[in-house]
Design a protein that fits this description.
This protein has 554 residues and is mainly α. It is built from 21 helices and 4 strands.
Length: 554
Amino acid sequence: MNTEMIFVQDSPPRHPSRERTRVLGLRRRIFHPLVAICALQTALSLTLVWSNTAFTDEAEFLWGGHLEISHWLHGTPLPSILSDNFFGAPSIYPPIGAAADSVGGLAAARILSLIFMLGATALLYLAANRLFGKAAALTASALWAISEPALRIGAFATYDALSVFLTALSAWLVLQAGFRRHRGEFVAASAATLALATATAYSAFIISPVMVAFAFLAWLPAIGAKRAIISAAWFLGTYVMCFALIMTELNCWVGIIHVSGIVAHNPAATTLNGVWTDSGFVVVLAAIGTAAAIFTESGSKRVLIAVLSCAALVVPAAQIVGQTEVSLDQHLPYGLWFAAMSAGYGCSKLVRSLPTNRRIPVILCCTLALAYPAADGWQAAWYKQLSWSNSSSFVAAFRPVAAHARGLIYLPTQNYVAMYYTPQGHEWTMWSRSELPQTELPLDPSEILKDRWVPLYSQLLRKSGYGVIALFYTTTVRGLPGGMVLPSQSNIARGQLLNIVAADTGSASKPLRGLPALTLAIESDSSYRLVAIGPYNTGTIKGIYAIWQKRAQT
């Protein structure tokens, strides 16, 4: 009898050295210092996400984004305000933010901004690592991640975070073009990305000259002066062409012309104080980096580091020329992203200049010292997040009234908040907006004698037929405007209003000087009844809202 022996061959074991390499590689990624930096940035920004209700800008862009999506899906008409007054193309960020808002509300839209800012942090590390090495890259990423502008924009549902991320991506693509085979394609991709960033937020245009200089100086040592000049010219031409195509296709030229003419007439000292508060630490370290480069580097690298440092001053200079401090901390990240690389370079140079046995203690001390700017940046961001009125009380009172009214009006500055938080906000034709010229109820009737303001408003109210009127009082006085007396049939406690009001009606300021007269006109109109009064306070100003509803006709 033949006995057959069957041998079952086991699968060959994995090579132990290869398996060990894979595990070590995964462990290095998980415990990479950049992960810790991003985790810190995430934790600090997340504390801001739920700190307050929507700011006017957030409400405006998310409301507009929902209208854009509705227009794409159902062909509903769009208000001209979307293209005329937005500081960015209304069909780029607003629909993206609105999509996140549909999934998880305002918090989801703000977390989306945080994701964009984390992407900018990672791209900063990659770019600085390519230019100056790992130590400089980690320092630059940490300085950027804990800065006030980066933390707050990471918890702010506006187009700034997306635009900053696209600008960072454009800079990273610039560096890729310096050593990749398909240089022309990378140059074109970088220019197109920067054009998209500029269309997303028009303020990104400020950083475009820095990007051109950055591209030329980054390419110069790798491909020579002649090719660097040609590539920089190709970059600039492609950027201009792509931006023009995007703006033409999206029909946004009217909007950019309109917003570019806005001047706030803020003094330069106010802007400089804001720059020092929000980014002074990085600016000082960037200046140290420039000084270190002057003594230790030569040629184009020295100039590149100086350009990176000066990038932090481009936005402040532009806002000083424009005499405006508006949204300063939202614009600073464009230059701060570049300046952080110079700051990281300077810190790494200082550490390397020390004896080897002293470097580790100094690095540990510097890491611990970052706790102060991190806490300072977070505190500044926290105070700014609380600088506008919490609208929870107002929305709760306004929503049921708006649901049963036709012909809505919301005055004077918080209309976007109401339109964002109420379903009626999508019916934009029902809303009157006080900041537009030739409004039905102007709050600055300066062309008419003051003693005629109340009769004027009474006449306009009879013609308008508005179903709901909401007014806000935000500066300090002891009583109600013009001796206003609450109607006896109001179910609101009379003492509540007097206790809440610690604010003047704003009658001293030009945009709101007609508010007391309008209030008296509404109170004297028997067709309106006061239905709600409540607090509308900021961290420094106490105010109230008052809502009137038109009585049902019998």
